[in-house]
Structures are given as C-alpha cells and as structure tokens.
C-alpha cells in the first residue's frame, strides 16, 4: 500500500500527542491546541492526505488516512502516545484508538462523534454569497466588526460559531481560510463517499479503555452535541463537557475556557501517573 508522506508540525518535548485536524483543515489550524499543549507534550500535527501541504497523488479512501498516520508513527519511532482529534480528526482518532488500543494513553475528542449526526439546514445561493463576501473581507481585515455584523452573521459562519467576536474571526482569517483553500478535491470526494456510506462505531467503543475527554458545542449544527454525548456514554472511561452559546468551532470561540478544562483533565490523570512512576 502506498503511503503519503505527511507534512507535519512538531512542537515541544516529552510524551507524544498526535493532533488530527478536521475538514477542511490542516495541522496549522490546530495551533490553538498545539501552542499551549506543547508545554507538556511533544505535539505532532500532520496535514492529512490532500490537506494543507500534503499532496494527494490521486483518488483515495478515508482508510488511507489511517495508513498514512501509522506510517508517520513508525517514521517518528513513536510507541505510546496521546491523541487529540477535532471533527473529522476525532473520527480518525477513534479509529486509531481502536486499531492500537494498547498504544493510546489518552484521547481528547473535540466536536466529533462515533455516530455523527448533523442538523445543518439546507444551503442556499444567498448563504454562499454572504459567506464568500464575509470570507474575503475578513481575510483583508480580520475581525472587522462591520463585516461581522453585515455579512458574517448572515453567512454560513453562523452555523460554525455562535460568538461572532473579532478574536474568533481572527482565527477564521489566519487559519480557516488557508485550510479551506488548500483542501484538495480528492479529499472532498473521499469524505463525501464516506458520508454516503454512513459511519457508526458505537458498538466498538467498549474496546477503548483509555481515559477520554469528549468536548462539544451546544449549538453545533455540523456534529450535534447529542451525538457527542452518545459517544461519551459508550466509552468506558469518558468525561463529557458541553459549552453553551458555542458551535462547531468552539475552540476558536472560547479558547481559554477549553484549554483550562483540558489542562484540568490532564492534571487529574498525569499527576497520579507521575506518582506511580516515582
């Protein structure tokens, strides 16, 4: 089987934390996590096949992402590791945890589900027009309040975020737009094909015994919080947190709160482990 060599961003030292982005996305769009978590982990954030700066030489299936990631772990000589996945990256993280149950030490799932369901309304031409204008103006002048009020809140951004703040739109400008533009048609087709088949890993989650943190946005229309809660309920060792007045991109809406909760969850697990090792 042919593997894609994944363009990868590595920060920090210590225990590896593999961070997987969503669609559209890239390793760079996970900087809200990697900049902070690299203080205690060696964060590894690859561009998946067909995303960011990783080429897609031809058509591929979603399972090829897992082969690429396994090859990356081998190349970096990583045995045991932690996992963080956002949206599509969370589904891939679940798959890796099922494939390597004795290698994954902990799992952080962000805006994702083992049986994802959407409540996104139909998209109209007006939605696309407003989104295009809002995106262009925001790239030119990130966080411009006039653009947020005039176009952003009427665009498809309204289904991605609930808190239309300049800080959130700064993330959209610096990391969201570039990730969207760098996502290949092959990556879109691979995801669309997988969505048509459907996905349900709930019956298998009992095999993931590591500690898990499942985070959701109360207003997420792309992967509903109900499906994230269902995932947490099927994981043997999971903690679930849902944030009010947020949506699918809630780490860009309330980054300080999200990172604080992740830190607390990690502290509760890493400190006892250090005590055992000492």
Describe the structure.
The protein is an alpha/beta fold and 278 residues long. The protein has a single domain, classed as Rossmann fold (3-Layer(aba) Sandwich), CATH 3.40.50.1820. The protein is built from ten helices and seven strands. The chain has helices at 31-37, 63-75, 88-99, 125-140, 145-150, 166-182, 185-197, 225-234, 250-253, 255-277, and strands spanning 8-11, 16-20, 42-46, 81-86, 104-110, 212-217, 238-243. It has a seven-stranded mixed β-sheet with strand order 1-3-2-4-5-6-7, sandwiched between helices. Strand 6, helix 8 and strand 7 form a beta-alpha-beta unit. Helix 4 (125-140) packs across helix 6. Residues 274-278 have low confidence and may be disordered.
How do the helices and strands line up, and which of them pair or pack?
Layout lengths: L7 E4 L4 E5 L10 H7 L4 E5 L16 H13 L5 E6 L1 H12 L4 E7 L14 H16 L4 H6 L15 H17 L2 H13 L14 E6 L7 H10 L3 E6 L6 H4 L1 H23 L1
Parallel strand pairs: 2-3, 2-4, 4-5, 5-6, 6-7
Antiparallel strand pairs: 1-3
Helix pairs in contact: 4-6
